[in-house]
């Protein structure tokens, strides 16, 4: 027996994100699922930093920081600014700040 959607559920379905949008969102959340990347994002919440500053602040190797920054940059979560020979990293936009803030508020609220 097949169940058809209730008439009142059609507006809900028409407002849902598309499958390609949900796939892209899933990829963004995968980026947020790594502790090293979250630490880098948290450091960049404070101010823009170069790779050396991040290695010193987080106790990570240059190779590890560079690898994670590449993933964050490919996901459009961080951006770069060149000053002479130095490259500084910062959060790409306020959406990244909001995602981090909301995630932290949620875990602090739930106590988990």
Automatic annotation (TrEMBL):
Renumbered to this chain, the signal peptide range is: none
Q: Keyword Membrane on this protein?
A: no
- What keywords is this UniProt entry annotated with? Cadmium resistance, DNA-binding, Transcription, Transcription regulation
| Residue ranges occupied by any HTH arsR-type domain in the UniProt entry | 17-111
Domain of life from the UniProt record: Bacteria
Residue span(s) of domain Formamidopyrimidine-DNA glycosylase catalytic = 17-112
Give the matching SMART domains. HTH_ARSR
Q: What is this protein called?
A: Helix-turn-helix transcriptional regulator
Q: Which organism is it from?
A: Hydrogenoanaerobacterium saccharovorans
Source organism phylogeny: Bacteria, Bacillati, Bacillota, Clostridia, Eubacteriales
